[in-house]
Amino acid sequence: APAKLDENDPQAKGLGYKHDASKVDKAKYPKYAAGQHCGNCQLFQGKPTDATAPCAVFGGKLVENKGWCSAYTKKA
Ligand code: SF4
Predict the structure, then answer these.
(1) Atom of ligand 1 nearest to the CA of 55
(2) Is residue 21 part of a domain?
(3) Is residue 76 included in any domain, yes or no?
(4) Domain that holds residue 44
(5) What is the pLDDT of residues 24-46, one digit of tens each?
(6) In a domain, 34, yes or no
(7) Of the N and C termini of the chain, which has fewer Cβ atoms inside 10 Å?
């Protein structure tokens, strides 16, 4: 199974990734809007109901459905 993305991974830190979107640094990432999370991001490679799924931005490492990073792109 793919590895789980570590919040302390340099790339994760660079994009402000948090396993829990409520913990995102809102001052640093003003683009964050309530309701945005990995589970409704275009780059979440799973079903919207999956607890975790690989993320294309992080080389397929698993991200949390309720996570968020600054590469968030609303699912079309
Ligand atoms: Fe989550 Fe999307 Fe960022 Fe991947 S790109 S970590 S799915 S918000």
Answers:
(1) 4
(2) yes
(3) no
(4) 10-64
(5) 999 999 999 999 999 999 999 99
(6) yes
(7) C
pLDDT band at 51 (very low <50, low <70, confident <90, very high): very high
Residue 54 belongs to domain with CATH number: 4.10.490.10
Supply the residue whose CA is at minimum distance from atom 4 of ligand 1.
Answer: 55
Work out how many domains the chain is built from and give that number.
1
For ligand 1, pick from 17, 57, 58, 70 the residue to mutate: most ligand atoms within 8 Å of CB: 57
| Residue keyed to tokens 């600054």 | 70
Give 9: exposed, middle or buried? Use CB within 10 Å, 0-12, 13-18, 19+: middle
pLDDT at res. 1 = 78
Q: Which atom of ligand 1 is nearest to the CA of 39?
A: 7
Residue 53 lies in a domain: yes
Non-local CB neighbours of 21 within 8 Å, separated by 6+ positions: 32, 36, 37, 38, 66, 67, 68
